[in-house]
Specification:
The chain is an alpha/beta fold. The protein is built from 15 helices and 24 strands. The protein folds into 2 domains: about 5-245 and about 445-469, Aldehyde Dehydrogenase, Chain A, domain 1, CATH 3.40.605.10; about 250-435, Aldehyde Dehydrogenase, Chain A, domain 2, CATH 3.40.309.10. Helix 4 packs parallel to helix 5 (about 150-160). The protein binds nicotinamide-adenine-dinucleotide (NAD). The site of nicotinamide-adenine-dinucleotide has 28 residues, from helix 7 and helix 8.
């Protein structure tokens, strides 16, 4: 596959660029494709296309816009096999999980398309009528990460378009292909300029966030980059959605069924090889069951097949890219240097970016593996005995994305959940997201909301009319 076979979408047409970007398969460490590397000229063209498409799209009936968003979902579902294979190759995730992500993206489009934001009548006294209408913001810049490139791009595309905005979307340079392909597949029915897809290297994101042609930036990525995005959006006071990092705590109470809960928590931590914003990143386990729980997790770590995602039977893939691979290995090296006990599964040898599933046995609370977001298949297990103390520890983070509580007593678990300072708390499950439920981060995990009516509201602004009769 070469740059000639995948194109950007600008103004409803295929677009290329003078330069190109290499795409690497993380399971082999080898470059296997190139995509366009857009610069200032291509960005300008995309913004111009989005700006000129905006008035007509804003004035298109809600139901007609919903029909197009729905059709994007249908198109993704109809092409799921092709898209999933491409996603496995560029992202590394196992085929089944790539298929799951692609189908989730389709479902998200179709679910989002059912949402509405009706006008709100507000009492204004005799002889007067007052109404608040939710109007689109304008041209949106969407910037997505490499861990779930398809679904996290759709989380921006579906609500932005439904609400009447036009969009320029940039996927991560590490995973540009599947998103570009979706742009190609929907080009013939999404009105020209409404949805533009561009790819480029490290320079392109900052060019976008600083550009006065955008009215809003919707960004998903790391907290460090989120701070830069916010600073860069300040001169033109762009509207912002920032979905950032997490350091999600799990609190495991002593009354759980140990093998069942260990298995659920294992997948809450290690799905996508730990590269999930809402993965369990610190597990606090009650001391009464700590040893038994750790031993169950170790059994699972030793049994889970890790390898090339395109091979049948693979349950966990590689780390998605070399810089992240180096970061995760740096955290492992730090654990080793400090003498923490590591309990590990197997990982393939070779050029791929594989890190074995690793449990860190009760490291200190102030260790790097507990304080930092690992975003890889390493999980610190921490022993606790006092509930108030463990809630304080769970909350003693700059992050506040999600968290989990595991207990047979769901009412007691709910009381713990209420005290966790995060946007989502799941009881006896992990990674439970819905197109209809608000998703947001507290503290430095983000600004704004995605999904549900609350997420849709971040793509509109209220405009209030008053008529005196
Ligand atoms: P990243 O911040 O490195 O990159 C995200 C995107 O921003 C990419 O498209 C990148 O090209 C672009 N970018 C990089 N520098 C930029 C800049 N200065 N200005 C504008 N854009 C720029 O993040 P990543 O490594 O791709 O993703 C991993 C991180 O994302 C983790 O911290 C994870 O927790 C977080 N994440 C959060 C959510 C959520 O919904 N809260 C979801 C997935 C991932």
């Amino acid at each position: 596959m070469t740059q000639d076979t995948l194109t950007m979408t600008i103004g409803g047409k295929a677009a290329s660029s003078a330069n190109s970007l290499d795409v690497c398969n993380p399971a082999t460490g080898q470059v296997f494709a190139t995509v366009p590397d857009a610069g200032a000229a291509e960005l300008e063209a995309a913004i111009t296309a989005a700006r000129s498409a905006f008035p007509a799209w804003r004035d298109t009936a809600w139901a007609d816009r919903a029909a197009i968003v729905n059709r994007i979902g249908e198109t993704i579902a109809a092409n799921a096999a092709e898209l999933a294979a491409m996603l496995t190759r560029e992202q590394g995730k196992p085929a089944e999980q790539a298929q799951f992500e692609v189908m989730a993206a389709a479902q998200w489009c179709q679910a989002t398309a059912t949402l509405t934001l009706p006008d709100r009548e507000i009492e204004a006294g005799p002889g007067r009528r007052q109404v608040t209408r939710y109007v689109p913001i304008g041209v949106v810049a969407g910037i997505s990460p490499w861990n779930f490139p398809v679904v996290l791009s759709i989380w921006k595309i579906a609500p932005a378009l439904l609400a009447g905005n036009t969009l320029v979307l940039k996927p991560s340079p590490f995973t540009p292909m599947t998103v570009l392909r979706i742009g190609e597949l929907v080009r013939d029915f999404v009105p020209a300029g409404v949805l533009n897809m561009i790819t480029g290297g490290d320079a392109l994101g900052p060019l976008m966030t600083a550009h006065p042609g955008f009215d809003k930036v919707s960004f998903t990525g790391s907290t460090a980059t989120g701070r830069r995005v916010m600073a860069s959006a300040a001169p033109t006071l762009k509207r912002l959605t920032l979905e950032l990092g997490g350091n999600d705590a799990a609190i495991v109470m002593p009354d759980v069924n140990v093998p069942e809960t260990a298995e659920r928590l294992f997948w809450s931590a290690f799905t996508n090889s730990g590269q999930v914003c809402v993965a369990t990143k610190r597990a606090y386990v009650h001391s009464d069951i700590y040893d038994a729980f750790r031993d169950e997790l170790v059994k699972l770590a030793e049994a889970v097949p890790m390898g090339d995602g395109s091979q049948q039977g693979t349950a966990l893939g590689p780390i998605q890219n070399k810089p992240q691979y180096d970061r995760v290995r740096g955290l492992l090296a730090d654990c080793k240097a400090n003498g923490y006990q590591l309990l590990q599964g197997d990982a393939p040898e070779g050029e791929g970016f594989f890190v074995p599933v690793t449990l860190v046995d009760n490291p200190p609370e102030d260790s790097r593996i507990v304080r930092e977001e690992q975003f890889g298949p390493i999980l610190p297990l921490l022993r606790f005995s006092d509930v108030e103390e463990v809630i304080a520890k769970a909350n003693s983070s700059d992050m506040g994305l999600a968290g989990t509580v595991w207990s047979a007593d769901t009412e007691a678990a709910m009381r713990i959940a209420e005290q966790m300072d995060t946007g989502n708390v799941w009881i006896n499950e992990g990674l439970a997201l819905s197109p209809f439920a608000a998703f947001s981060g507290r503290k430095q995990s983000g600004v704004g909301v995605e999904n549900g009516i609350e997420g849709l509201m971040t793509y509109v602004e209220p405009k209030t009319f008053l008529v005196s009769h």
